[in-house]
Amino acid sequence: MKRILSTLVLGAGFSTTAIAGGLGYGATATTGPSSNHFSLFAISNPAMGALMVPESESWRFAYFPNISSSTEVGNVDNFVDDLDDLIDIIDDPTSTSDSAQEVLDRFNGVLGEMGDNGYVKTTLGVSAPLMPLFVRSDSLGGTLSVELDLKTQVGLRILDDELSYDDQTGSFSTNTSAYVKSGIQTKLALGYSFPLLTNYFETSSGQLYGGVKMGFTQMELSKQVIALQQLDGKDVDNIIEDEYDNNLRSTTGLELDLGLLWVADNYRLGLTLSNLNSPSYKYGAVGENCDSYEEASSARAHCETATYFVQVRGELKARETHTKHAVATVDASYFLSSRWVLSSSLDLAAYDDMVGQENQWLHLSTAYEAKGNWLPSWRFGYQQNLAGTELAATNVGLTLFRVLTLDLIWGTESVTVEGSTVPRQVGFSVGFQERF
Questions:
Q1: Taking a C-beta distance cutoff of 8 angstroms, is the pair 185, 354 a contact?
Q2: Do 77 and 416 meet the contact criterion of CB atoms below 8 Å apart?
Q3: What is the count of structural domains for the chain?
Q4: Among candidates 71, 36, 54, which has minimal Cα distance to 397?
Q5: pLDDT tens per residue across span 178-187
């Protein structure tokens, strides 16, 4: 039996933004969505585009695709191991030397905790080659930007139900299921940033910039209920892949972002209003039209189990939408020198990611941009989700040869998996961009 954790790895791969869940590309994986022009990806605030191309140049771009990924695990020690053990015992009751009562006592004691806290979530993002692209236009009096990327998120959590034992058949049964939600987003964003009301706001102390960004988004959302007792020796990841299209729903939408940025000699203050129009995207349905599946098939059994959790337990909705609610983000940067900056950003409200988990991110960081090609630039950061899981992580990153960025995210909380203590969150970002 393949481990449940591998399901999330496959889920991110077989389907192949700032990324959902507080994860950014390149250096922004450490510095967050702050107005720091050391990275081409520091454009969560649309007004930042005006600072990306100096007067001596007319355009700027990234080189190769940038990749970022992050994985989170719920705060339940060994829940992945327990879940795999349960699957093996349901498939073959003789696979354990424990008595039936010992099995019932063990799993009925942990299934509720699994349902409350057991989850695994993987986020993956890939930017297109040459993106983002910035073009400074004197005739338009501002800077145009183009972004194109692909983002996917897969979340697995446990729907718990009582485990029972049939003395006559010598078998265990339960409606406990793996509940998988996944999203794939392809987004093309066009932006324009410019000095705002120059005659009034331009002073010896600073300049106000404005920006607008329009995103054209296609989002594919799917959710699946996989009943553990219906696996019949099959791997969970194979079932998810086989039935993925049956629950897939594709929706397109427009997303509008606005930004303001005050730029002074030693500091910057930014305000970003994201998803002002609150676009919605539909998930595929679960637990409906189960009689359309072949009788006694595993697909029908999974569907009927989903109906149980929708109609009897009331834990799921058969149909739902993912709404990108409007969110305001403030950020501030202070330059200790032309190369050393302190940065921060804060979401002013909570919002759901593609798999329905709440996010509200705080980022704090410091970064130093080295002079020359051979000395590495460095950055350190701290991030915390103030909503939902409330996870926190430390971040560290290097820029080598002024073009290659390497960043690591390491969670501050730990959990036991397969007997080893590991952080509840780990992530990385690898990118290439035009040098500054």
A1: yes
A2: yes
A3: 1
A4: 36
A5: 899 999 999 9
